[in-house]
């Protein structure tokens, strides 16, 4: 009988430790992210979800441990190798992190000019394609971040994260602050993009609806490490008190019931 192909881990975190002074945020944390999956990362406030994301994308040097992205340790690479590796992932930060002095198309074009060496007109033309991919209506290009709704800021930031055709997309609380309809639309967009572009998605979220709608697997950060990782129904059965109150509290039950009524056909 043919054996299934082994799963490729595009991100591998081993024995990660992160300390800030006397505060230990991560202790011996291990995590694998598989190619093509949407991995949801959840945990109580302050459990170190954003610090984990920053450690993986090379914005923070961990206290100790190894982080490999596509088999390479970002922090040990030469600047040129590092920049090549960084082109293979895009990051959407919590607040969008758009430059307020640039309009939307200039924000999205910037990485294409700086890292891909495109001319300004070429970069802006391609940025227009990315904005359409992120679901922004024509006319948004010339607006400044302060003129956009919260949902539009997220979509513009997503377009920028997609500008270099990344293989991995990191999303830090993408639906935070969005109304439920915009949040659901954003969830559908992430699923569509993953399927259309073959992305791997590392998704930090508190949003139970997002977990139920989009994630193939869920990792729970608790007790300074990844306490449990797996499909949502398996993770939700873990006996940890935080897991129990998160998945089986009123909001967890509502999200589960909504998902049972309307399961997403696109989830793998
Ligand atoms: N640069 C820093 N200096 C000192 N402490 C920090 C720094 N960055 C993060 N921390 C601390 O690390 C802990 C984890 O922070 P992090 O932002 O990763 O939490 P989180 O799980 O993403 O929380 P939330 O869900 O509230 O966004 C917090 O106690 C935070 O205060």
Automatic annotation (TrEMBL):
**Keywords associated with the record:** ATP-binding, Nucleotide-binding, Transport
Residues of the ABC transporter domain: 11-248
Coiled-coil intervals? none
Q: Please name the SUPFAM superfamilies in this protein's record.
A: P-loop containing nucleoside triphosphate hydrolases
Name the source's superkingdom.
Bacteria
The entry lists its GO molecular-function terms as: ATP binding; ATP hydrolysis activity
Its recorded name reads ABC transporter ATP-binding protein
Organism classification: Bacteria, Pseudomonadati, Pseudomonadota, Gammaproteobacteria, Lysobacterales
């Amino acid at each position: 009988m043919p054996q299934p192909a082994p799963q490729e881990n595009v991100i591998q975190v081993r024995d990660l430790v992160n300390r800030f002074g006397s505060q230990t945020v991560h202790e011996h944390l291990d995590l694998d992210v598989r190619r093509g999956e949407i991995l949801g990362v959840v945990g109580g406030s302050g459990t170190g979800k954003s610090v984990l994301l920053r450690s993986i994308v090379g914005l923070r040097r961990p206290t100790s441990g190894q982080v490999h992205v596509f088999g390479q340790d970002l922090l040990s690479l030469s600047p040129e190798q590092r920049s090549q590796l960084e082109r293979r992932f895009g990051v959407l930060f919590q607040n969008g992190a758009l430059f307020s002095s640039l309009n939307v198309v200039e924000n999205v074009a910037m990485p294409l000019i700086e890292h891909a060496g495109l001319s300004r007109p070429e970069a802006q033309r391609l940025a227009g394609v990315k904005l359409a991919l992120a679901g922004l209506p024509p006319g948004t290009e010339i607006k400044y971040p302060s003129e956009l709704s919260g949902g539009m800021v997220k979509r513009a930031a997503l377009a920028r994260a997609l500008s270099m055709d990344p293989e991995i997309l990191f999303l830090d609380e993408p639906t935070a602050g969005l109304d439920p309809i915009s949040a659901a639309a954003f969830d559908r967009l992430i699923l569509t993009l993953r399927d259309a572009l073959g992305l791997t998605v590392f998704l930090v979220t508190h949003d139970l609806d997002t977990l139920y709608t989009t994630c193939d697997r869920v990792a729970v950060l608790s007790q300074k490490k990844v306490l449990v990782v797996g499909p949502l129904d398996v993770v939700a059965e873990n006996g940890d008190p935080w897991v129990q109150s998160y998945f089986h509290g009123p909001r967890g039950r509502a999200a589960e019931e909504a998902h049972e009524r309307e399961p997403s056909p696109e989830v793998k």
